[in-house]
């Protein structure tokens, strides 16, 4: 009897993650409707030169938030090290993007195209009945319509927290919108900005405005409603 040793194809280190039905991150990315992103990202490139990273850049931005990577440098490094991340972001066929590539993406998309992508996802959620579900606990005689809740969230700043203390006890940082320490005792870390949002009763953000940390929530209610009506 002769023994034969057949060469087996090399399996990616992402294989076990991708076939794991209980992997929450993999399942999350599989549920993303790429058509909400692709047409908008396509507008940003002329296609005159070599094919770029395309939609993979935007998917990796989603990965950055899901995995709480605090900088584009960390995101670029994690993508180069982790094959699962590359598969999820459709960046497994070639080189991974450098950190400065994301700055180009932000400049090309701009606020309007980011908002356009968000509107696409909101419209999909509306078709699925997620914006205004039938909740038995609500009064039956209430006025019909979408229930919106105003909320705000401080945005942590990762700039240098070494400020210059002023005579009045306040601090000045490299980013003038950053506040830290005693003036805002609830914030135990440098806070640069605040996101003011209108969200549905199911927690889906409909529209957001970013302001400095010092702004109160009340002054942004009507601007939020005006922006919501435009969409």
From TrEMBL:
It comes from marine sediment metagenome. Residues 16-107 form the Transposase InsH N-terminal domain. InterPro entries: Transposase_InsH_N. Pfam families: DUF772. This is Transposase InsH N-terminal domain-containing protein.
């Amino acid at each position: 009897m002769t023994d034969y040793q057949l060469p087996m194809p090399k399996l990616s280190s992402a294989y076990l993650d991708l076939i794991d039905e209980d992997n929450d991150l993999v399942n999350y990315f599989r549920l993303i409707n790429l058509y909400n992103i692709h047409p908008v990202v396509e507008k940003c490139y002329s296609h005159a030169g070599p094919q770029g990273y395309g939609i993979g850049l935007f998917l990796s931005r989603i990965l950055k938030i899901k995995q709480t990577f605090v900088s584009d440098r960390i995101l670029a490094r994690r993508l180069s090290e982790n094959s699962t991340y590359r598969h999820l972001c459709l960046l497994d066929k070639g080189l991974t993007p450098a950190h400065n590539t994301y700055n180009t993406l932000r400049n090309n998309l701009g606020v309007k195209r980011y908002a356009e992508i968000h509107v696409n996802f909101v419209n999909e959620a509306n078709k699925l009945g997620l914006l205004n579900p039938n909740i038995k606990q609500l009064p039956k005689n209430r006025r019909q319509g979408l229930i919106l809740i105003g909320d705000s969230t401080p945005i942590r700043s990762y700039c240098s927290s070494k400020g210059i203390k002023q005579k009045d006890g306040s601090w000045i940082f490299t980013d003038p919108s950053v506040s830290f320490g005693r003036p805002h005792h609830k914030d135990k870390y440098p806070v640069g900005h605040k996101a003011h949002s209108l969200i549905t009763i199911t927690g889906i953000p409909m529209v957001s405005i970013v302001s400095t940390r010092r702004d109160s929530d009340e002054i942004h209610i009507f601007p939020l409603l005006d922006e919501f009506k435009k969409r």
